[in-house]
Amino acid sequence: MMRYHDPHMRSGLPTAADCAPFFGRYVALVKSDDIVEHLTRQLPLTVALLRSLEPERRYAPGKWSVKQVLGHMIDTERVMAYRALRISRGDTTPLPGFDQDVLVNGARFDEQPMEELIEEFECVRKSTILQLRGVSAEMWSRVGTASDHPTSARALAYIIGGHELYHVELFERLYS
What we know:
By secondary structure, this protein is mainly α. The protein has a single domain (39-175), classed as Up-down Bundle (Four Helix Bundle (Hemerythrin (Met), subunit A)). The chain has 7 helices and 2 strands. Helix 1 crosses helix 7, helix 2 runs antiparallel to helix 5 and helix 3 (66-88) packs antiparallel against helix 7. The longest helix has 23 residues, at 66-88. It is globular and about 45 Å long. The relative contact order is 0.24.
């Protein structure tokens, strides 16, 4: 059972300067100034949607299956949470980018049972939430370098939430 999140420890909304412009589209999708609460509330909604989809469905030839998109969401959350961990704790070592296609193509998402991928998503999300609950106001505002761009811990948490919302919208529009 997830413990209560202190609403007084809100992250606050990131600014455009908090991350690379590419990631701004994800940040803008999250309308809450409490990203931990948002991530907590969004989890059961996304899981319910995932359970309603046909796991092998692709919206066009050559596009990722539902399982592959879910695997991509898991991978991305892990990478962004790791970056947030390092940056929020004051590590200023530049963090490299990653190639989403290499990660998806190097995995075996289509061979895994959908329910196991959903379970993995839930576990990764719960881990992210627990990690972010320990972030103080000062830690949220710390900035490091990720993919050659200044990036705040706050922005990374919002990228996680917005990236999920982006793919939820695609699931609803293209995969349902």
